[in-house]
Amino acid sequence: MSHDLRIAIVALRHGLVVLPGLLRCEGVFPAPDGTPTNAIRGLSDMIATLVTRFEPTHLVCCWDNDWRPAFRTDAIPTYKSHRLIEGTTDKEDAPEDLNVQVPLLRRVIESVGIPVIGSDGYEADDVIGTYTAQYSGRVAVDVVTGDRDLFQLIDDVAPVRVIYTAKAGVRDAEVLTQSSLQERYGVPTGAAYADMATLRGDTSDGLPGVKGIGDKTAAALIETYGTLAGVRAAVDNGDPAIKGARRKNLEAASDYLDVAPKVVKVADDAPLPNIPVTLPARSRTQPPLKNSLPLMASRTLSGDCSQPWTYSVKAPDDYEP
Fold it and tell me: Cα separation of 294 and 296, whole Å?
């Protein structure tokens, strides 16, 4: 593996950008036609800071082509169902100020040579999981996200870190490794975190988990039995250490535990286009994206946002891919 190469993989959501604070960018005025610009400015500043602080050689933004994939909702119908707009089966309830900016967010990113990649039938997390698997052992990987679900990808050997933006944004983002998982959750690896998360559940994703089991109990079970499969085997084999309400709840959750790992686990085999994700050279040698991304956002929003992209923006004259 080359220690001179590092890919940064940024999680975006179709309809909801998984990066904190984008709707709280103050002092940003709407476009002439009234289109809000705070998320666009927030995202452009975020990526500029990301490139400046972490200096990746490769960068890709991953997109939700399907925010409730069939393979997850078939297994657990409640998966993200509480986020649906009432009366619909596939429309996510998201702030309107953000919805109108989503197409422009994508255009701004692509205009400076950063690919935005999705895969039909998969979430952005799955695209990230697939890129991580593809680059594992060849290039150091940083996953930039505010979503704990991606902690399961952390791997010191590969290596894969999570740049966690939920608390302080990318400027003061936490860099998480396996020692972070051990310190915070009492689990030693990303895979163990996924097992813990399956037991715990996640109400924000509509995953019920096992009644009475939170982070600490789940981590203790994983520590004792090694894996989720080990926990279930202990229950099935009548291990006397698992007793009372805990045994009863684990037995009652058997059907859930049969299918939940497939829902919780990030896919690593989403079909992806064969395109380069190398960060444009000028973005690495000049003040990285500090001027170009805000400029692109400004140019994008300076015209009629209902017009095609070719009418609303063009690359800077000195841009070199």
Answer: 5
